[in-house]
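To close the chapter, one final illustration. This time we ask the reader to focus less on the individual chains and more on the assembly as a whole: which components sit near each other, and how the overall shape emerges from the parts.
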Amino acid sequence: MKKKKVSRIGIVTGGGDCPGLNAVIRAVTKTAIIDHDMQVVGFLDGFEGMVENRTVPLDYNRVSGILTRGGTILGSSNRSDPFHYPMLEDGKTTYRDRSDQLLANFDNLGLDVLVCLGGDGTMAAVNQLIAKGLKAVGIPKTIDNDLWGTDITFGFNSAMTTAAEAIDRIHTTAESHHRVMIVEVMGRYAGWLALTSGVAAGGDIILIPEIPYDIESVCAKIKDRKYHGSYFSILVIGEGAHPEGGKISVKKVVEGSPEKIRLGGAGNHISSLIEKRLQLESRVIVLGHLVRGGVPTPFDRVLSSRFGFEAMERIVRGEFGLMVSLRKEEVTTVPISEVAGKIRTVPLDAHLIRTARSLGTCLGD
Amino acid sequence: MKKKKVSRIGIVTGGGDCPGLNAVIRAVTKTAIIDHDMQVVGFLDGFEGMVENRTVPLDYNRVSGILTRGGTILGSSNRSDPFHYPMLEDGKTTYRDRSDQLLANFDNLGLDVLVCLGGDGTMAAVNQLIAKGLKAVGIPKTIDNDLWGTDITFGFNSAMTTAAEAIDRIHTTAESHHRVMIVEVMGRYAGWLALTSGVAAGGDIILIPEIPYDIESVCAKIKDRKYHGSYFSILVIGEGAHPEGGKISVKKVVEGSPEKIRLGGAGNHISSLIEKRLQLESRVIVLGHLVRGGVPTPFDRVLSSRFGFEAMERIVRGEFGLMVSLRKEEVTTVPISEVAGKIRTVPLDAHLIRTARSLGTCLGD
Amino acid sequence: MKKKKVSRIGIVTGGGDCPGLNAVIRAVTKTAIIDHDMQVVGFLDGFEGMVENRTVPLDYNRVSGILTRGGTILGSSNRSDPFHYPMLEDGKTTYRDRSDQLLANFDNLGLDVLVCLGGDGTMAAVNQLIAKGLKAVGIPKTIDNDLWGTDITFGFNSAMTTAAEAIDRIHTTAESHHRVMIVEVMGRYAGWLALTSGVAAGGDIILIPEIPYDIESVCAKIKDRKYHGSYFSILVIGEGAHPEGGKISVKKVVEGSPEKIRLGGAGNHISSLIEKRLQLESRVIVLGHLVRGGVPTPFDRVLSSRFGFEAMERIVRGEFGLMVSLRKEEVTTVPISEVAGKIRTVPLDAHLIRTARSLGTCLGD
Amino acid sequence: MKKKKVSRIGIVTGGGDCPGLNAVIRAVTKTAIIDHDMQVVGFLDGFEGMVENRTVPLDYNRVSGILTRGGTILGSSNRSDPFHYPMLEDGKTTYRDRSDQLLANFDNLGLDVLVCLGGDGTMAAVNQLIAKGLKAVGIPKTIDNDLWGTDITFGFNSAMTTAAEAIDRIHTTAESHHRVMIVEVMGRYAGWLALTSGVAAGGDIILIPEIPYDIESVCAKIKDRKYHGSYFSILVIGEGAHPEGGKISVKKVVEGSPEKIRLGGAGNHISSLIEKRLQLESRVIVLGHLVRGGVPTPFDRVLSSRFGFEAMERIVRGEFGLMVSLRKEEVTTVPISEVAGKIRTVPLDAHLIRTARSLGTCLGD
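The assembled structure is written out below.
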């Protein structure tokens, strides 16, 4: 009976670009069409397309061959919060609540459920839309892996792989030139990307937002390596690394108010501190958007496909207001209301942190 | 007190080549030296080196820079069972039990514990050695991912990635030439590699040893695709795929007697069946050893590092006879006695199997 | 004035799949549209589409984003010779001359010139069509690099890169297992692919069709390596390698009659010879179609773009009957009549052959 | 007779890190040992090792397995000019002529010839050393491809490939987000890297030092693309791009005085100009050192091997004072005196520039 009720679904991709978006879109669309004989409508450019009613029908041919393609065939937009929607009026930007317009468009399109691919910002917005009556299922997307309620998000494995392979490249230069090389990766509040790619690529010093760093410890490590004959050092730094970092992150999570303090730029800052203290030239490479793009790893293609399939399973069973998630190796769900406004940071006693320390990696403390 | 007793450890890599071996060797050695002030000795060429007493001391420099290197710096050998050890006598091969020699060598080297990297065959041999008094900790290695007692083995992610990227390449040719392309991957008893790389690369038909296939279903799928305008089909086939496959695999696991029936060669067999039935040219690509080699993926480098670290944790706590494993996202252990002689096959109701079906993939049944 | 005469061009991709095909199609189409305000029509599935009059209009959007895509958006076909065109009549295949039909279709479409992407077979057919009045410009395509009249064909760099990276992977297994590993690559008459990828990946023994090999020399090299402590050897073999190989190739080129004797399968043959002589296990990996597919290397994308641009330059100048080529680092042209029916083999005194010998590589003689 | 005189050769790698260095070292060493029975000595850390007499003997084992490794096993240094050698005296840096010390060390080591891998700076220094009596052969190394006297340097293909693949990644983000993305690559005086990787990756706007750019043309191109429905643009910018750039470059080459004016940072500068003019957000990615490192492409491994082999050929023939080079597809040589102090920039009528324009690429003018 429930099965009958859902016959048209919408898909929207919120927030930043992320490898695997197209793989999810493909899985949702194929499953909906093949298994459940539904119709699928894609919104263009994230919430912008929902507010402005710009859509594209998705059928089998439209999603053929997109499994390996980076980016999103639906596009995305910076205008990512329909409750605080930027509009140009009289030459200046004002912010309006366009959620009613969005919901009206959704109804007029005859849609029953929204499948929403996004990170913490997107889930927070969806949560508010659900409160206003929208039926929705979320799929956790972010290269930062910092979404509450899931052990992993799609996109993270690809971003981590790209970052690690970039650090591999830097390694040969550092070694040949006896240089301090600093690689800054994304991650303002959570250090998953820096920690994982740093361990994967054998970084000597890894600084993440969760662990306050002491520049003296960092410099001591570099000197110690030199003393033992390694004239180079590789630093892998999450952009939000901070001498007070841990406290800020913890505070954010506890209070659930992700006020977006600009914490970035740790790489250049630490470079200048090291040069001053050690009279040593260092080079900074900011990976930034490089890790967002490109072909998703096979791991992410599989995860994206599983997430997309599971979203449809829940929809068919009439379960809404949930975000699909992976927990303890099982694909399951979590209420979006529990996810909204939270960030999942790296626990200080994580196995990977203990592994890193044991391998001799300096974590800044 | 226990900590004192272990001061020298040995490492051996059993069975076939696998990405991540060097990453484990590095993690074990670094952790042993840095954290626990132990000495580490590597056996050359697997159990052959243990029987023939060929070793190399492992120190910090020796394991520097090997994190990203494929293969194993210790070498491996086909002579993988010390209880059934092939020797050339009077011009012909006879098999002898050399386990006493192996254990004597181990003692003479003053070693306290053996860290053993291997798959089901290696774990079975280690289990017998433990029964004779050896202290050992196992680390699960195989590109097939079919080891009992762990959700994943190191090497699998790399092999799966290589396989999926190879299928990606085949895709363009299949599409341009409107051809049936058959990619055969390793996996005699378990279909993890075929199933995962097949879903990752969008295979149209995936045949694994666990699911008996009906050639009529396979041909019907190819014809159906043609009818709907897709003039090509990609088949991803585990080498052990068989019309009766599932039964053999189940039998094996239940009885715990992995009698190595040569099940390989499914690719060419199915190719000829298809050509006969559909009067259609098909091409077979056997990936074989291609997926064993090369640089491990960052995912595998992290997993290998965590496994190596955990092995040392257990050794320091005086816990022996265990294999390190990953279960429900946590690194833990399982008694080697429980692992020996078993194979972990893909459950027929696995989420990934249901995902594959939902995406329209034919699994041969 | 000439510029006026050419206002509509056709494109066809003949023969096998090859990285860079789409890059050429894009370059020709963009140049034709942007620079010369022409119309472009693509024939589907090679000469088959020309005979059967199946086409697709090519405009700016159609060729956007295809630069990095493997395969060909136009498709290709095995029915590659319009003068000897296989047709199913009364349940059996007969061969007919369909060239008049092809030319009639071409005229009816209002096309002025044909841009033809292909290898030696395609150029031979085009040459015959030119004799019947067709205006055409050829672009040299083949992963084998054996086309007469050009120093390099597009696709070769990509195929060579894929092959070399595959051999890299094999290397780690060979080294860890002390094994003889044999990698067979495409190349029936010319050894460019085997020689170049073999040198690039440090193959110990490289056998190409141009150089007759002596199995005793091959075995001696393997033994010599063992004697000096290298217990493994990597053989890179062109599929057409033959104890009498050189003579056949030379004969072919001189007489200009490329009768397609099936010379393939050298890999397995040599494997069995080695096993018999040295009582040594060896493994064969046949790369085959793996090197045809995938994203073209940046080198090939640039070369393809330059070739496509140059083809249009010639067309605008009213120069027909030519194949674009690269000679001594300059993009130039050669009459198709000089190219047709010839194969360019590796000269025995090539710098790369001398380099290989000097590095200690055994070339089988 | 000459052959007898050369029995010991030295190798030094000058200047920055570059893919292929190890491949050259391997080729020179293997050829010297296998073919000519010579001894080979490597200087550590470039000219620093020559001045300070730090060396390592190079034999067959030492160069085994380094073909695919990035960086240089010999190390390099910033102290790259022995005639102007920085020394710390009384707490401050003074520059001294240490060339006599260098030559004395060379003689004392019993070396006959120096094989010198480097770019324009290194060749200029070697030229001065030749004037003082040193026998030397140069091998052209630089990722910038701007060395006079050769069509290509080793390292360029690898760097260009890395850059193009990075731009590929950026493409998906740009497309999904409708953004202006600016990728800055190395190249202060010559635009080979920007132009080649830009064409390879389909950059919409490519700015190189040789062509003065007009910011109005750049902005017009972005607006024009938008007008035609492409809401994103990819800019590929050589770090030395400049509104007056061409003149500076030309002046440099003519006068032969490469005074190293810091021309870098074009990326951020142009980003701010665009944002101001078009009220459009843009993102800058500085690839920098990312393109120096990593595994050399198979193309570069082959070129490096050929260069290394040819250097030894010349040495054996008693030809000194030359730099090995590739000209019109042939490996040949050029007197180092002709190379020193010059830079090879992209000719304004280069085929690749004409190709780029024809494809609709804006070159800033």
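Confidence is low (pLDDT under 50) at residues 253-262 of chain C. The radius of gyration of chain C is 22 Å. With these observations in hand, you are ready for the problems at the end of the chapter.
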